[in-house]
Hints:
Layout: H1 2-119, H2 123-165, E1 179-186, E2 191-194, E3 207-212, E4 215-225, E5 230-234, E6 248-251
Antiparallel strand pairs: 1-2, 1-6, 2-5, 3-4, 3-6, 4-5
Amino acid sequence: MLTRISLIVAILASIGSLLVSHLQLSKKITGLESDLASTRAQLGQTQSELTEANSKLAETTELVDKTQRQLDQTNQRLADMTNRAKQQQDRADRAEKDLNETKTELTANQRELAAWKALDIPVDEVRNRLQDLIKVNNAFVAQQDENGILLRKVNELKGRLDDILGVDETPPPAMPGVSGKVVAVDPQWDFVVLDVGGKGGALQRGEMLINRDGRLVAKVRITRVEADYCFANVMSNWKQADVVVGDEAISREQ
Length: 254
């Protein structure tokens, strides 16, 4: 009997304990459900705020991009305007320079015109006189050229005659260190033109040896000296072969 009573008491105690546990668990479940609902509400609010923040961020990003594009366009327009302003300034500077040059030329022309007016000579007569002056100058230049050619021919003939007759008036002048090249040859009169003149030490009646590839070709005697070139006759008794353009010429003293 006692065993039954003890068993019943134990069962009742277990049932009571289960009831208490169930009540406590129900409270915890209710609290958890309440917390879950609150958390879900907060999560929903947070998601709503996040969506709103993302929307504002997108708007801000679009505004920044738009502002950047406007800034780029403004900078490009500013660069274009600056370039156009520089071009306009360059044109203005050139125009001012041309204007100053035109004024200077106009002043010179006015002075020249005043001088011509002071001479009291008709324009047609001035033109005729200028043409006559040009003709006289051309004739003078032609005469000078002709005289030069005649003088060179005379010197060449005299040099050849001296070589033929063996005339040796005075020893040739020394020209140490003088050298050059043959730049022209006249086979008919047997004279050459050398690219060394008075500036290089060439002297009238000076003698030079003509070499080609280290071989003696001829000896020449200078008949005429200019600043940068000279004329020379080929000495017949020294001629080993025909002189050609490009042959080297050196003074005897080298």
